[in-house]
Amino acid sequence: MLRPEEMTRSVVVGSIDSLSVTIECLYELGVLHLIDFTAQDQDFRIGQPLPQASDASQKLLKLRSMIRSLDIEKHKPADKMPVKDIKRRLEQALVTLDQNVSSKSEARQKIQTLIREKEADIRALEPIASFGIPVENYEGFDNITSFVGVCKRDPTAAIASKIPESETLIAAGKSDAIVAVFVRNEDRAEAVRILSEHEFQEIKLPKLKGDPSALLDRLRAEIKGLEADLARTVKDIEAIRKKFADFIVSSEEDLSIEVLKAETPLRIATTANSFVIDGWIPTARVQEIQTALDTLCCGLAFVETIPPEKDDEPPVELKNPRPVKPFEFFMNLVSTPKYDEIDPTLILFITFPLFFGFMVGDLGFGVGLALLGALIRWKFKAYPDAVKLGSIIVAGGVIASVFGLIVFAEAFGIPFHPPEESPDEYSWASVVDIPIHPMLEKMYDIKEMLAISFVAGWIHLSLGFAFGFINHVHHSKKHAIAKVAWFVLLLGLFEEMMFFVGDATATSGFVNSTVFAIFPDAAFSFSGIGVSISAVVLMVVGVALLPLTEGPLVLTEVIGVFTNLISYARLAALAIGKGGMAFAFNTMLLPTVFESGNILISALALVGLVVSQLFFVFFLGSLSAGIQAIRLNYVEFFIKFFEGGGTDFSPLKYERKYSVAKE
Amino acid sequence: MDIGTGLALVGAGIAVGVAGLGTGLAQGQVGAAAVGATAEDPKMFGKGLILMVLPETIVIFGFVVAILLWIS
Q1: Complex ipTM above 0.85?
Q2: Residue in B closest to A331 by C-alpha
Q3: How confident is the model at residue A657 (pLDDT cuts 50, 70, 90)?
Q4: Average pLDDT over residues A461-488
Q5: Which residues of B touch A (CB under 8 A)?
């Protein structure tokens, strides 16, 4: 919590003979985050891939090409195949499969190409079939040039008048005219001109001989034969796919893992007789590696922990209890915290549902959201991020229901009892008497809502400064003191706000009598506004400390603290806005539903009410509440302390989805 | 309701309305750029979201001013 998993810089050292066993062992344990070795010198060289690498890569290449030919990239085998079976069958299977798959897929491609060519011939021959001239007679004359193609308009008359010694054949096409024009070579230019005026487009005739109609019949018959061949080949491929898809996909996975392991030496340092694997291991698991290496390598390899260097950046594995884990989703959206930074996931776990719950604050919508979250978790359980998001929505929904039930006493935007200020308002009281009265009326206790928002903001921001202090205190005292200065400034500002409103709300009264009770009451009036002297002192101290620690330019940001605090007014604003929206729809449509006297109109109004509540209040309202709740964390809170840019902990390991190493 | 109260309420409406317009103008531009950045690199989503929602504070100011006008 708040800190990532502790890492220890370690080197695994051993005799070169035990390299492959060591690598195997490290991948099995999955705890070593490898630091790539790059700085070669006379003593240390980058390692050579394990002997099986090239053979495995070649096989992998074949399998992958098969996967493409058989179109099984997305195939998911139902059962995991034991690696023993894969190894036993692979050699033989690869030979037969490779021949079969490549010859079949080549045949398929060849037939498809042939069919395409013949279809193109048919398309070229069909228009000129009615002319009845053998195909070879359109070309190959010494003194005559021929044009075959389609024209948008009939060019016969134009050609006949301009080129008397010519022959034009014409037939009606779909929306144009098919023409074959024969002219003397010397009239060629003129013919081109006339034809282009008629938007002539040439048809490229195939190099065939004979009567077009007879040729067409022959081509069609040939295509039929080819299509039968194609169907046979596709069926064969389908049979191979059915029989071997599981095997191919499982073997591909197994070989990928083998290649991954075999190429690992390319990332580590070796000498003629030894190897050195440098990396980070979670401190709690160093012993585990040592024990495993002792057993597997018989003392030929061992782990040694070394003190980290000053500018080392250990990889970060967030360490949070199970209920907090889903909120790491929000951290992934921004950036991984640095190793020596505080991991704020726990605070997100607390503040996000509270902020969200306060803004939604409705029993009906809260329960709806919790159900929606559960549905997302259940429907998309294959996607880790969706499961996390689902859990977050469940948490937000539950807290929103609690707020709706206890604090605001309303469900689906309708209060349990009509508020005192508006006794005629529709409420659940006319259906069922719920013995809970609201602690806060969203629409009427606006000052109270605002006061609560500001208190939440003050606590949240102060926590941000405290985290900033902790993050900086070890390497930059100056920056740490600056966080204290900001903290004091914020406290002064908040005191002045609370002093200004006095006991106008229960919240401000409570805060003034507890948090600020120890501060002296001394105050003066400045142009009609009461100013607390202790608040001014705090603000002055804060502002005076700032330029000493972060330079004079930081003074331009002082107003930002005020902005940050005011920004939390959105908690109240959204709660009131949502309440107002639900109230508006209810006031417009509920009377029609109950009092129209016409069942059809009542039903229509009810549908309108459900749709508008669902869309505007439930979906849009929850969406904006979610965005605002996370924004308050990302912008107001994180900026106080969070830098991010840490390296994710990614240990040497693999995941078998379709194969199992042991039976 | 006297004229002064009416004017105050009109002022409250203007405060929220115009602040909302300002936020909208700013957010439109930031949002377009943020979506572009996210399309190129999905890791930019978080940063994009932060930049995208920054101008929202403007409308919150409008809201606070409106509330102050309304309840005074």
Answers
A1: no
A2: B46
A3: confident
A4: 93
A5: 45-47, 49-50, 53-54, 56-57, 60-61, 63-64, 67, 70-71
Q: Which residue of B has its CA nearest to A334?
A: B46
Check which CATH number belongs to the domain holding B25 and give it.
1.20.20
Rounded to the nearest 5°, which phi and psi values hold at A386?
-65, -35
Domain contains B43? yes
Residue B50 lies in a domain: yes
Q: Where are the beta strands (DSSP E) in A273-343?
A: 274-282, 301-305
Tokens representing residue A663 in the block: 């039976």
Region A193-213 average pLDDT: 88
| Interchain CB distance below 8 Å, B47 and A631 | no
pLDDT beneath 50: ranges in chain B: none
Number of domains in chain B: 1
Give A563's contacts in chain B (Cβ within 8 Å): 57
What is the Cα–Cα distance from A403 to A397, expressed in whole angstroms? 10
Does the residue B32 lie in any domain? yes
Both tokens assigned to A408: 């605001």
Global pTM reads 0.79
CB A512 within 8 A of CB A499: yes
Q: Tell me: the pLDDT tens digits for A597-630? A: 788 888 898 898 888 888 888 888 898 899 899 9
> Do the Cβ atoms of A545 and A488 come closer than 8 Å?
yes
With a CB cutoff of 8 Å and minimum separation 6, the contacts of A110 are: none
Count of A-B CB contacts under 8 Å: 45
In CATH, the number for domain A123-218 is: 3.30.70.2750
